[in-house]
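User: quick one, sequence for these C-alpha cells?
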C-alpha cells in the first residue's frame, strides 16, 4: 500500500484544526493522525502487506483499523487515487503531494532524476511481501540489537517504534535485504560500526540513531552501507582448528575422496618421533585425513597433504 499526505517535519505531525475541532469520533481522529504520521514530506511511502502491514506498524488490531479506514473514506478523510492512499482534509480537495500520472496519458511528463538517495529508493518498485509482520521483525531485530550493540547504546523497546522501523526498512530496501534477513543485517552493521573510532562511544544511541528515521540524509545511507561492508568479515564463520567438520569441508572442497578426519595428539616431541618411526603404525586410509597436534598447543603441527600447495596453509575462515 502506498500512502501520501501533508507532513511538515520528521519528528512532528501537524494536525489541521479542522480535524482536532471536528465532530468525528475520537477513534477516527486518532487513526487519521496515525496514518498522517507515516507520511514523509513530499514523498509517497510504501507500506508492505497493505492495510494489514499498516495496522501492524501502527499497533492497531486489523479489524479495528479496517473499520476506521473504511469509515474515513466515507467521511472524506481518506481518498484513493491510482493506488495511492491520500490523507485528506474533509470538505476540501485532497492534498496530492506526489504527482501520479496515468500510464495511459499521452502527455506524460519526463520523470525527473532523483536528487537524493531517499528519492531514488522511493522511486523503486514496491517489494513483495515477506510473510513476516512488522511486529515479528521488530522482535527478531531487538534480540540481535540488545545482544550485539555497544554497551552505551540503549535497548530497543518491547513495542514497535514505527518511525525507527521505517528507517530500518528504508536502509534494508536500498541494500536489497528482506525482512527475514533483518537480524543478520543489523548484526553486520553493528559489527562494522564497532570498528569505528567514534560510533561505539558516541552516545546513548538507539536503533533510529544508527539507521535513521524520517527523511534519511545521504550521509546516513552511506554510513550504514560503510558499516555493513566493514562488518562482512565478522559474519563469516571462523575456521575452528579443533572442529573435524570444518576440516572435512575444507578437504572436500579440493578432494572428494576424503570422507572422514582423524585427530592424533602427542604429549611431547619424543612421542611424536616414536609414532613416525614405528613401522607397525597402520597406513592412513585413502578416504581419511589425519591432523596432528601437541597437547600443549591448539594449533596443528601437521596434516594430510600439507606438502601440496593448496593445503599448505589452513584457511582463516570457510
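Assistant:
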Amino acid at each position: 500500500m502506498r500512502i501520501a499526505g501533508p507532513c511538515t517535519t520528521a519528528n512532528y505531525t501537524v494536525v489541521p484544526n479542522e480535524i482536532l475541532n471536528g465532530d468525528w469520533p475520537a477513534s477516527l481522529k486518532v487513526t487519521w493522525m496515525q496514518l498522517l504520521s507515516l507520511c514523509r514530506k513530499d514523498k509517497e511511502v510504501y507500506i508492505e502487506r497493505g492495510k494489514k502491514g499498516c495496522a501492524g506498524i501502527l499497533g492497531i488490531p486489523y479489524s479495528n483499523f479496517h473499520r476506521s479506514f473504511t469509515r474515513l473514506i466515507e467521511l472524506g478523510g481518506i481518498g484513493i487515487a491510482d493506488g495511492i492512499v491520500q490523507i485528506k482534509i474533509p470538505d476540501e480537495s485532497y492534498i496530492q503531494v506526489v504527482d501520479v500520472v496515468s500510464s495511459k496519458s499521452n502527455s506524460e511528463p519526463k520523470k525527473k532524476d532523483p536528487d537524493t538517495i531517499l528519492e531514488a529508493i522511493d522511486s523503486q518498485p514496491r517489494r513483495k511481501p515477506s510473510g513476516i509482520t512488522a511486529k515479528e521483525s521488530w522482535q527478531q531485530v531487538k534480540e540481535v540489537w540488545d545482544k550485539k550493540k555497544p554497551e552505551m547504546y540503549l535497548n530497543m523497546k518491547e513495542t514497535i517504534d514505527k518511525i525507527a522501523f521505517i528507517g530500518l526498512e528504508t536502509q534494508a530496501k536500498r541494500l536489497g535485504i528482506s525482512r527475514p534477513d533483518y537480524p543478520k543485517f543489523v548484526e553486520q552493521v553493528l559489527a562494522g560500526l564497532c570498528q569505528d573510532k567514534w560510533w561505539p562511544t558516541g552516545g546513548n544511541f538507539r536503533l533510529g540513531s544508527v539507521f535513521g528515521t524520517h527523511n534519511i540524509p545521504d550521509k546516513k545511507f552511506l554510513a550504514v552501507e560503510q558499516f555493513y561492508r566493514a562488518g562482512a568479515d565478522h559474519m563469516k564463520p571462523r575456521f575452528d582448528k579443533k572442529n573435524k567438520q570444518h576440516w572435512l569441508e575444507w578437504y572436500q572442497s579440493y578432494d572428494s575422496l576424503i570422507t572422514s578426519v582423524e585427530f592424533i595428539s602427542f604429549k611431547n616431541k619424543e612421542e611424536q618421533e616414536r609414532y613416525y618411526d614405528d613401522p607397525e603404525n597402520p597406513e592412513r586410509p585413502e578416504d581419511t585425513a589425519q591432523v596432528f597436534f601437541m597437547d600443549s598447543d591448539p594449533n596443528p603441527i601437521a596434516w594430510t597433504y600439507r606438502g601440496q600447495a593448496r593445503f599448505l596453509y589452513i584457511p582463516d575462515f570457510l
